[in-house]
Amino acid sequence: MLKLILVRLASTIPVILVVTMLIFLLLRLSSGDPALLMAGDTASAEVIESMRISLGLDRPLTVQYGIWLSDLLKGDLGTSILTKQPVAAMIMERLEPTFLLTLSVICLTLLIAVPAGAIAAWFHRTWLDRSVMAFSVVGYSVPAFVIGYLLILSFAIYLNLLPVQGYVSPFTDFLGFVEHMTLPAVTLSIVMMALVARVTRSSLLEILGEDFIRTAKAKGNTDRRVLWKHALPNAAVPIITVIGISIASIIGGVVVTESVFNIPGVGRLTIDAIMSRDYPLVQGLILFFSLVYVGINLLVDLIYVLVDPRIRY
Amino acid sequence: MHTETTNLNMPQATSRRSGSLWRSFLSMNKLTLFSLLGLGLIVLSALFADVLSMYDPLQLYPRHRLQAPGAEHWFGADALGRDVFTRVLHGGRISLLVGVGVALIAATGGVVVGLCAGISRYTDGIVMRVMDGVMAIPGILLAVALVSLFGASLTSIVIAIAIPEIPRVARLLRSVVLTTREEIYVKAAQGLGLPTYKIMWRHILPSCIAPLVVQTTFVFASAILMESVLGFLGVGFSADVPTWGNVMAEGRAVFQRAPWMILFAGLFLSVTVLTVNILGDSLRDRLDPKLSKNSKVL
What we know:
The complex is a heterodimer of chains A (313) and B (298).
Chain A: H1 2-30, H2 34-39, H3 45-55, H4 61-73, H5 87-93, H6 95-122, H7 127-141, H8 144-158, H9 174-208, H10 211-218, H11 223-234, H12 236-260, H13 266-275, H14 279-307
Helix pairs in contact in A: 1-14, 6-7, 6-9, 6-12, 7-9, 8-9, 8-12, 9-12, 10-11, 12-13, 12-14, 13-14
Chain B: H1 11-14, H2 20-26, H3 30-47, H4 49-52, H5 84-119, H6 121-136, H7 139-150, H8 154-181, H9 184-191, H10 196-233, H11 244-253, H12 260-287, H13 289-292
């Protein structure tokens, strides 16, 4: 197991290297002269020149990349142009709402979408199946911000049940947190539920046609036991894959949802950073999201082995 | 196995006979027909936007500011008094144009990269690592960053949305190329001494077409979605250009008083993406029964 983890961990290194190269090139090629940006419009030529030397911009691109990379390894993501704070600290500060939002979305999805997909597969070709699948297509196609505003309109404005926007930390006021988090979590989880329900259904359908399911039924197991004990564990691998993929894809959704619901998380920070052209911060944030993506994929691969003993690397 | 696809309407079997297009049209299920109709209406409304509405999408009517939907303004008016119906119709032009552009670029890029990966192990390793890297960066963020860095024009927006989509097409094509390469007829062609490019072009590429067409449909849908996200976040086309995303972005500030901007633009956007996705699903069932398995909807 340890060897497996090490091998899989080592395989992420090239991906991470490519990501850092892409991000470095992207920002270097496009942002023009960072020294000019940092020094401001009023700076004299000498000030800009000394800025350029202190930033290492007079050296070849490969050397600059090497310096940037070694700083990264030390945990130094650079300093924000606007606030002059370290980028890593700014990201950490905004992490709580985003993390809790994502966690609520994952919980909601697992609680609703997996059972829904299982029910659709069990009652294959009935109205139950059809309605779950109809929800799945619609949920996948309607963009998160449209769903978000529809929910705000109906639950916050017309019914006046929940707050329109904002965020309250659960450590200060738990009830307030739940109230504020409900709509964004539902908004974001609809896309994920659509995907997970669909894959749960299709992979279960395949398993339900297997011989061992018939054997399990013939031995007198109850339907419920056959479904949960025999079928679902064998259908787990594609379900876990799609959960992993959809967590990665809701990273983008987090940005949109946080803007709709005015949640001060990492997603909002990203939009603000891009709007104010704070390049070191943009760079740090894209890198952060990419690392999260790589990390989730790694985790999914390791879970495979735990869930399905047939898989070996 | 619960394979639901019937092979009776395989295009290879019917397409050579005359009138087969009409026959396959009749044999479509209701949902596909409905989606085709819905998408057709939206495309037509975008094409004939000038005829359908007597307003100019940029014309301001200060006295009609935030007027609710009614006889004068069917979808209401926005905060500057522009007609939302007209802006939504004109927005369709840009959204569909971006969708087509992205689909073409992503398909071309994906084919090139996918074939490169299929040529040799060495190129495969390099090319796919780069693709993995691009995929690791969240698509929306990459597009938003690219657009904000290179400025928002039609070209830059199309390219910015296409880049994150390329790896998704490339991965699919690579897997098709790798399986096709092992087929006996390809081995035979190799044995006859056919040069690699000829094998690629005449023997491997044709089997890529069906999955490519299906994937391109989904890329088209997601590109339209992405363009509206860019507009919605305020990094897309400049604010006065009528796009679905921009109309919604303008609606954000006045949402509580005038929800019709977001609702109508969102409706057009959702219907487009929904119908394209449904059409993609049924296209997959027709062209590629192996791929569809149980993912068939309704």
